[in-house]
Design brief:
Chain lengths: 252, 316
C-alpha cells in the first residue's frame, strides 16, 4: 500500500489546490505591495516607530493565510462533499494512516506555498522600499533569515490548522467561516476588547502570537518570535490531535 | 479427497458474515439484529425497500460506520483487520462519489497506489470498463452509466475476492445493465463473492442466485432465489372458456375456490391444470386456454415487506 502516493495523486490531479496556492502567492505579494505603497514618497524620517521592513513586507499574509488554510481544509472537505471519503476509507481502512498521509501532503503544499509567498513578497517589497530610498532589509541582516523561516513555518502551520478544521467540520463553508474567524476576526477585534481579555488575546491568540515569528523588531504588545511560533505550533498540534481522534472514531 | 488447509481457507475464507448486526441512530434503529452469510461463487442479491437498512449494512461491512452491536466480517475479520483490504474487498457504493474534476485515469491511478498497484492495472481497468477513450475526461462530463463504469473499475482495481455493489443497475441503460450483469456472472463463476443490493425485485429475478431480503432493518428471507419463489409465491390456474358459468358451477360443486376474471375467464386457486382440465372434460366443456400462472415475485416481495415497510404511507 502506498497511502502517501494515494493522497499525493489526489492532491495534484485537480486544479483547485494549485490555483489556491498560486492565488496565495500572488494575492499575498500584491497585498504586501499595496500595504507599503502609501509609504512610497514618505521621507525616511517620517517612518513609524519600530520600523520593521521585514514584517512590513509580509502584510499580505493577512489574505494568503486564509487561502493556505482553505487549501488544507479543502483537501478533506471536498472528499466529504463528493462522497469520495467512503471509497478512500474502504481502500485504506486504517484511518490514522490515511489522515497521516493527507497531513504530510498538506504540509508539503503549505510549506511550498509559504516559501514562495515569503520570498516573492519579501523580495518585491524590499526592492520597492530601496527604490523609494527607505530603510529596507537584506536577507543577511541580523534576524531577517530567522524571520523569513518563521514566516514560512507560520503559513505551513496555518495550512495544517486548516486541514484539522476541515476534518472536524467536514464542510467547506464551515471551514471557511471558522478560518475567517480565527485568522482575521479575532486578531482584528482583540485590540478593541477592553481589559485583560483584549490584552491576553493580542499576546496569546495563536494567530497573533504566531505572526510574531516573522518580526525582526520586537513589539510590546506581542510575544517574542520563538514563543509566538511555539504557541501556534502547540495549538495546531492540539487541534490536529482532536482531528485525528474525531477522524478515527466518528462514522464516515 | 482430503481438504488441505489452503483449500479450506480458499473455500471458507471469503464469506461475508453478519452476526447480530445492529445500528441505532439516537432512538431510531436502522439495522436490527441482522444475521446472514454471503457465499462465494454465486451472486447474492440484497433486497429491501428504500430505507430498509441496505446501505447502512453495506457501510458497516466497509467499516465506514461502526455497528452499535454485533459484527459484519469478511473471511472472519472486520475490514479494518484485513491485511490487503483493496485486494480482498472492492465496493461501489455511490457511483457519483468521485471528484468531478479528477480525470478517470488519475482517479484510478490514485486508488491503484492505495492498493499497491501500478499504471498497467489502471489501463487494464479502463479497458475492462470500456472507458479507455474517456480516460482523460473529467467525470463532470460523464453520463450516469460512465460513472457506474468508473465506480466498478475502481472496485475491481485490486482484483478483490469480494465485490460489494450498492444499487449497481440504477440508471443504467439496457446495454449497461447487460454488461454489469455479465460481469457479475463471470466474477461469480471465478469463485468471487458478489453481493449487490437493489430495491427492485425485477432486477433480482434475472440476476441473483441467492437472496437476502430485509425490511425495516430486519431479516425477512435468506435463501436461494428458487427456494424463495417456491416458498413465497402462489400459483393459480387460468382457464378460459365460453361456458364459464357451467364450469364455475362444476368447480363450486367440487368445493374449489375460484375467481371470475373476465366474462370467459376464471382463476382457480390451489389446483393443478390437469384437475381443472379433467373436470371440464367430464362436463363436456370446450376450453380455449388452460395455463398455470405464478404470482409475480414483485408482489410476493411487497407482501413480505409491507408489514415492516416504514415509507409505505408516504408512497401511497
Amino acid at each position: 500500500m502506498n497511502v502517501l502516493g494515494f493522497e499525493w495523486i489526489k492532491m495534484r490531479s485537480i486544479s483547485s489546490p494549485w490555483l489556491t496556492a498560486l492565488s496565495a502567492i500572488f494575492a499575498g505579494t500584491t497585498l504586501s505591495m499595496l500595504g507599503v505603497s502609501d509609504l512610497i514618497g514618505v521621507s525616511p524620517a517620517d517612518l513609524p516607530d519600530g520600523w520593521d521592513p521585514t514584517a512590513e513586507s509580509l502584510k499580505g499574509f493577512l489574505f494568503a493565510q486564509l487561502l493556505v488554510g482553505m487549501l488544507g481544509a479543502h483537501s478533506i472537505t471536498s472528499e466529504y462533499a463528493t462522497g469520495l471519503i467512503g471509497t478512500s476509507l474502504a481502500v485504506v481502512p486504517a484511518r490514522f494512516r490515511l489522515l497521516a498521509a493527507k497531513t504530510t501532503v498538506v504540509c508539503v503544499m503549505s510549506l511550498g506555498t509559504g516559501i514562495a509567498t515569503t520570498l516573492l513578497s519579501f523580495t518585491a517589497i524590499q526592492a520597492m522600499l530601496a527604490g523609494a530610498g527607505l530603510a529596507s532589509a537584506g536577507i543577511a541582516d541580523p534576524g531577517v533569515a530567522r524571520a523569513l523561516v518563521g514566516a514560512m513555518l507560520y503559513l505551513t502551520l496555518v495550512g495544517l490548522m486548516g486541514l484539522a478544521v476541515g476534518v472536524l467540520t467536514r464542510s467547506t463553508t464551515a471551514s471557511l467561516a471558522t478560518l475567517i474567524g480565527v485568522t482575521l476576526l479575532v486578531p482584528a477585534i482583540a485590540p478593541g476588547i477592553p481589559g485583560a481579555v483584549g490584552g491576553w488575546l493580542q499576546h496569546y491568540w495563536p494567530i497573533s502570537s504566531g505572526q510574531a515569528a516573522y518580526r525582526v523588531v520586537p513589539v510590546d504588545a506581542v510575544v517574542g518570535p520563538e514563543l509566538g511560533l511555539g504557541i501556534l505550533a502547540a495549538v495546531t498540534a492540539a487541534v490536529g490531535t482532536a482531528a485525528f481522534v474525531s477522524f478515527s472514531v466518528r462514522d464516515a | 479427497m482430503s481438504w488441505t488447509k489452503a483449500d479450506s481457507k480458499l473455500m471458507g475464507a471469503m464469506c461475508i458474515r453478519a452476526h447480530g448486526l445492529t445500528k441505532r441512530y439516537g432512538g431510531k434503529t436502522a439495522v436490527d439484529g441482522l444475521s446472514f452469510s454471503v457465499q462465494p461463487g454465486v451472486i447474492t442479491g440484497f433486497l429491501g425497500p428504500n430505507g430498509a437498512g441496505k446501505s447502512t449494512t453495506l457501510r458497516m461491512l466497509l467499516g465506514l460506520i461502526r455497528p452499535t452491536q454485533g459484527a459484519i466480517t469478511i473471511g472472519g475479520r472486520p475490514i479494518a483487520e484485513l491485511e490487503h483490504p483493496a485486494r480482498t474487498i472492492g465496493a461501489l457504493l455511490d457511483a457519483r462519489a468521485v471528484h468531478p474534476q479528477r480525470t478517470a485515469y488519475d482517479h484510478l491511478l490514485a486508488f491503484a497506489h492505495a492498493a499497491g498497484l501500478g499504471k498497467a492495472r489502471v489501463d487494464k481497468m479502463l479497458d475492462l470498463a470500456g472507458l479507455s477513450n474517456a480516460a482523460t475526461s473529467r467525470p463532470d462530463q460523464f453520463s450516469l452509466g460512465m460513472y457506474q463504469r468508473l465506480g466498478l473499475a475502481t472496485a475491481l482495481l485490486g482484483d478483490p475476492d469480494v465485490l460489494v455493489l450498492d444499487e449497481p443497475l440504477n440508471g443504467l441503460d439496457p446495454e449497461g445493465i447487460r454488461w454489469m450483469r455479465s460481469l457479475m456472472r463471470s466474477l461469480a463463476s471465478k469463485g468471487r463473492t458478489i453481493l449487490f443490493s437493489s430495491h427492485l425485485m425485477s432486477e433480482m429475478e434475472i440476476t441473483a442466485d441467492n437472496l437476502i431480503v430485509i425490511g425495516n432493518g430486519r431479516l425477512i428471507a435468506d435463501s436461494s432465489l428458487a427456494e424463495f419463489i417456491k416458498a413465497h409465491t402462489s400459483t393459480v390456474v387460468l382457464v378460459r372458456t365460453a361456458a364459464r358459468e357451467q364450469l364455475a358451477r362444476a368447480l363450486s360443486d367440487a368445493g374449489m375456490r375460484f375467481k371470475a376474471i373476465a366474462s370467459d375467464t376464471l382463476h382457480v386457486a390451489g389446483a393443478d391444470p390437469s384437475c381443472v382440465g379433467g373436470m371440464a372434460a367430464k362436463e363436456g366443456i370446450t376450453l380455449d386456454e388452460l395455463t398455470t400462472i405464478r404470482e409475480p415475485l414483485e408482489k410476493a416481495f411487497l407482501r413480505l415487506t409491507r408489514s415492516v415497510t416504514q415509507y409505505e404511507g408516504q408512497l401511497a
